[in-house]
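Subject: for your reference before the review

Hello V.,

The reviewers asked for a structural picture of the protein, and I figured it would be easier to keep everything in one thread rather than splitting it across files. Below is the amino acid sequence we used in the manuscript, unchanged from the supplementary table.
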Amino acid sequence: MSIQRFASVLALGLALSACAQHGDPEGRVVSNDASAWSHQSAPQWQPAGLAAQPRLQALRDALPDDPVHTPEVTDWAPVGDGHPARAFVADGATADTPAALLARVADVLPENRFLGKDIWEQTRRLLRDDEGHAVGVVLHWGMKDDALAGRDYRLRMEPDGEQWRLIAVDTRLQCRRGISDEGICQ
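And here is what came back from the structure prediction:
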């Protein structure tokens, strides 16, 4: 094998190794291997699993015990005035299906412009309950921010004749180092 070919193979191997793991802003290495975190998922097709973020638990498990800076999730709260998703509620937005309504709202979220650049992933889930309502979530994870690991949205929908209507949009934060007294990531 020539030196040039050896160098190319070595560079490829190092690149693949770097893709298999990523470091967080604190310099720790967290595995991207699904087997490292999939066992911590909440059950599929269950309300408890709808907004579960198994990567947060994987982050907790990867860190040393620290009672002050433990990864946490804020409570769900309505999106604020001026947020693009709020206009959908105010306008009484409807769609043929809950999935179509979820997609319409998800497409205007401000995090979309950073997806693939400063945000690693976006996950969408949808669950219909026995009362005929639907709840959808849009989970963003892997933010290149030392405090904020992710931001999630929860959309509550109900049937309105032949259409589905959006009745509320809430948000919460996935915090790397806990939540401050003001309710934001620290």
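For the response letter, the relevant points are probably these. Residues 23-175 form one domain. Strands lie at 21-23, 29-31, 72-73, 77-78, 94-95, 121-128, 134-141, 148-160, 163-175.

Happy to draft the paragraph if you're swamped.

O.
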